[in-house]
TrEMBL record:
Pfam families linked: Prenyltransf
Keywords from the named record: Transferase
Organism (species): Lupinus angustifolius
Organism lineage string: Eukaryota, Viridiplantae, Streptophyta, Embryophyta, Tracheophyta
Record bears the keyword Transferase: yes
Domain of life according to the entry: Eukaryota
Keyword Glycoprotein: no
Protein name: Alkyl transferase
GO CC entries: endoplasmic reticulum
InterPro entries recorded: UPP_synth-like (IPR001441), UPP_synth-like_CS (IPR018520), UPP_synth-like_sf (IPR036424)
Family affiliation: Belongs to the UPP synthase family.
Entry EC no(s): 2.5.1.-
Example of a GO biological process term: polyprenol biosynthetic process
Amino acid sequence: MQKNKGITDKILGGLYCCLRKCLFGILSVVPVPSHIAFIMDGNRRFEKKMNLAEGGGHRAGFLALLSIVRYCYELGVKYVSVYAFSIDNFRRNPKHVQYLMDLMREKIDELLEQESIINEYGVRLVFVGKLELLSEPVRAAMEKAMRVTAHNNQRVLIICVAYTSTDEIVHAVQESCKDKWNEVQSSKVANGSIARTDLSLNNNSIDLHFQDSNNSYLSAAKDCTSSVLEGVEGAKKHVSNYSEAEITTCNELVEITEESEYKENELPSVKLVDIEKNIYMAVAPDPDILIRTSGEVRLSNFLLWQTSICPLYSPTALWPEIGLRHLVWAVLNFQKHHSYLEKKKKQF
């Protein structure tokens, strides 16, 4: 009896897989999203609803994640992002947080198994967030996963851990400021300090020593300018008293001083491109669809920078209950408004 049941399950599973691929083939006739992001909400409510043991909701949520990621990759979506753990979640019961960290490490190891979806679809795993807040064993597991899958380039799974969008933006601004500061320092090194120069004009010695500091440099340059100009005026009256080399050097000093005054007012500024280069999610394009389960429409500090024109789909199903129908509905809605969304993107 059980043998017959197993054969029936295999036939039905194969038929379902075939129908799913046919459905995805039809959806692929028009543009499909390149990046779908998920807020996995409702694991604990599902646990209570189904009277599961502690942690049962999160384990069910992991299985739902594997299913929905498989569907996305079968459809042709290259990037999938999931909000796994917020920085704010550290405020929860320490015992519960520790359980989630242990579960996360266990599931990362499972993802790296030979038969897993990671190897089946050539997925590169990327963990983003303030990872230094995590324990050493969890960080080590994440680093190993990213190292092992770094050569995969067909699909990308981005897992946001110890993440909030506000922290991401602050991090990007800080890194951009550091880059600009290094740029200024490199520029100063490249230009170099102008060495001591002695000129004898009208039996007066003009002593210049440009320091490494912008302020000292500019001050010295300004003090020198008037002396140089006076020297030049004197040279006009007594040109026969000075060599051509001395007058040329004098003119060069005036040009250097004017250029330094001009560049001081041109301090490098942080631009949009600098922020986007240093943002955690620079590894992927902005999401085309954001799906949050359990019927909530809040973003909960997730991808605030990247979702200004991204449609939000909020099915009432809890995260462990998410299925193929929810994904298909979200994709159909995206395709329906695709031309409008593309126009809005071009305006930014």
